[in-house]
Amino acid sequence: MNKYCPSCKKILDIDLFYSSPTRSDGHRAYCKECSKKKNKETLDKYLTEHPEKYRMYAQTRIDKLKQQGRYKEFLRMNNSRCKLFYYVNKGIIIKPTHCSICGKESDRIEGHHFNYDKFTDVVWLCSSCHKKVHSDVYFGNRLKRIKAI
After folding, report:
1. Rounded Cα distance, 123 and 60, in Å
2. Could you read off the pLDDT of 78-123 as tens digits, one per residue?
C-alpha cells in the first residue's frame, strides 16, 4: 500500500510513515524522513531562540542527579553509551538486525548493558523487549540465558 507525502511530494510505501491511531488511515501525513527533518528544524529554531531555557533544563537535570547522588553513575552510563555508539558507527562493533530475545527483525535494535564498565558487552534487543527488561516484567530464566550470550 502506498501513501503520498505532501512535504517531499513523493508516493512512498506505507511502511515509510509513522503510525498514528488518530488518523483515518492509521499513519501520519508526512514520511519518516520529512518528519525527522521537520522535528530537527523545529528543535534547532527553538534552541536558537531560547538557549537559556535549554541551559536551564540541562543544569536542573544535573542538579537533580547530584542531589540524588546519581551523577557519577549517570556519567559512567552515558560514557558507556557514547563509546558503544562510536564503535558501531566506525564499524568496529557490528549491530545485528534481530532481537536476541524474541528474534524479531527490526532496524531499531537497541543495545542493553548489564555492566556499564564493559561497554562492548551488550545484548541487542528490540524496543519492546528492552522495555520489558527494564521494567522487570520479563521472566528471568530466558534473560539469564541471553545474558550468557
Report:
1. 32
2. 888 899 899 999 999 898 999 988 888 888 899 888 888 888 888 9
Name the residue type at position 79: N
Q: Is residue 129 packed enough to be buried (19+ CB in 10 Å), middle (13-18) or exposed (0-12)?
A: buried
- Which of 149, 110, 107 minimizes the C-alpha distance to 15? 107
Residue 13's identity, in one-letter code, is D
Report H helices in 9-120.
32-49, 51-67, 71-90
The C-alpha atoms of residue 4 and residue 14 are separated, in whole angstroms, by 9
The answer to whether the beta carbons of residues 126 and 132 sit under 8 Å apart is no
93 burial via Cβ count (<10 Å: 0-12, 13-18, 19+): middle
User: What was the pLDDT predicted at 1?
Assistant: 87
Distance, in Å, from the CA atom of 86 to the CA atom of 125, rounded to the nearest integer, reads 18
Confidence of residue 30 (pLDDT cuts 50, 70, 90): very high
